[in-house]
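Write out a sequence, fold above all:
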Amino acid sequence: MPTCKECKHITPSPTGDPSKGICIQARTKLPDSQKTSTAIKGKMISKSSDICEFFEKGESWKDIRELI
């Protein structure tokens, strides 16, 4: 069974812990008055967790510009 480690929505943990990561799949559209159009809400997760309904195979941290 796939794990969160294989999802394109996970980035490395800012704490440096290789077993954890930040899930960045939650996005919110911002009002037109803001300089940016999307806010990304990160959530600390264990990379060995079972996948959620937003799972997409890939590695986001290799080219994060495609996700923003």
Q: What stands out?
A: The mean pLDDT is 85. DSSP finds no helices and three strands in the chain. The radius of gyration is 13 Å. Residues 4-50 form one domain.
